[in-house]
Amino acid sequence: QLSEYLAHLREHIDDYVACYRENYRQKKVLGLLDDSLPSDIDIEPRVEGLVVTGGYSQVAEEQAKALAERHGTRVQVMKNAINPF
């Protein structure tokens, strides 16, 4: 699913960049964005994928590792923990 989404983005990145820049410009003209923000923006056209997951056990880490190995996907695991003082 992620690889198909990335392929789509890469194929149409110029359209997405143009649309987002126009949307930003319109919001700036309408005063919907803070005056301290720039009047125009630069958008990096590079597209990368990252799966972020959260887990309470070793199972999440094992699944994330398997996903990364099987599909070459970058995976980041957020650890949910309670640390005593």
Can you describe this structure in just a few lines?
The chain is mainly alpha-helical and 85 residues long.
Give me the secondary-structure topology:
Elements: H1 2-29, E1 51-55, H2 58-71, E2 75-79
Parallel strand pairs: 1-2
Describe the structure.
With 85 residues, this protein is mostly helical. It has 2 domains: 1-47; 50-85, no CATH class. The protein is built from 2 helices and 2 strands. It has helices at residues 2-29, 58-71; strands at residues 51-55, 75-79. A two-stranded parallel ribbon has the order 1-2. The longest helix has 28 residues, at 2-29. The chain is flat and about 50 Å long.
**What count of domains describes the coordinates?**
2
Strand content: 5-15%
Strand order, main sheet: write it out: 1-2
Mean pLDDT: 87
Largest sheet features: 2 strands, parallel
Please report the total strand number as a whole number.
2
Helix content: 40-55%
Mass-distribution shape: flat
Write the H/E string, N to C. HEHE
Q: What is the CA–CA distance across the termini? A: 41 Å
* Count of DSSP-assigned helices: 2
Q: Runs with pLDDT <50, length 5+?
A: none
Rg from Cα: 19 Å
